[in-house]
Amino acid sequence: MNSGPGRAAKYLQAALGVAQDGRIGPATLAAARAKPAGVVIDALCDARLAFLQRLPTWPTFGRGWSGRVASVRRQALLMSATPQMPPGSSPMMPASPGEAPTVATPAGGATQPPAMPPAKSPSSGLAGIFALIVLALGSAVAWAAHLPCNLFGVFCQ
């Protein structure tokens, strides 16, 4: 609402230490993969909150904005901590009603009950990148949702 869609991309690029051109391309994505997701999420949320605090309407809306940034931070950190499965794979095999789910063995032999969740893999950085993109897109959608209806020549009815 107080930011354009390019601001989110530029905040991400600033947090990653790459050129701030407002376009998320190969250099930005490579830098995002190289940095811990939590560090980038915190930097993005801190920059967003600092921007909002500089607005003249902070005394009126600051409490709500601060809560929204805290909620986005919490959700993004949770998303970045979730282990990612490769697309199209599922460790769980369907169980009959009343039975516990089972996990297929790599050799395709007998099945066994699921063990503890797998440890965080190096590909979990992709979850962080996904969380950052969701954060950027969410900011753009929130901004666009609060635009006057006739800004782009579209009139409300």
* Number of distinct helices: 5
Strand content: under 5%
Strand order of the largest sheet: 1-2
Q: Give the integer mean of the pLDDT values.
A: 73
The main pleated sheet reads as: 2 strands, antiparallel
Number of strands: 2
Structural class call reads: mainly alpha
Uncertain segments of ≥5 residues (pLDDT<50)?
91-95, 101-116
What global shape is seen? Answer: globular
Order of helices and strands: HHHHEEH
Could you tell me the radius of gyration in angstroms?
21 Å
Span between termini: 21 Å
Question: Approximately how much helix is present in the residues?
Answer: 40-55%
What does this structure look like?
This protein has 157 residues and is an all-alpha fold. The protein has helices at 5-16, 26-34, 37-53, 58-81, 125-145; strands at residues 92-93, 102-103. The longest helix has 24 residues, at 58-81.
Short description:
The chain is an all-alpha fold.
SSE blueprint and pairings:
Blueprint (H helix, E strand, L loop, with lengths): L4 H12 L9 H9 L2 H17 L4 H24 L10 E2 L8 E2 L21 H21 L12
Antiparallel strand pairs: 1-2
Helix pairs in contact: 1-3, 1-5, 2-5, 3-4, 3-5, 4-5
Question: Which features characterize this protein?
Answer:
157 residues; mainly alpha; two-stranded antiparallel ribbon; 53% helix; globular
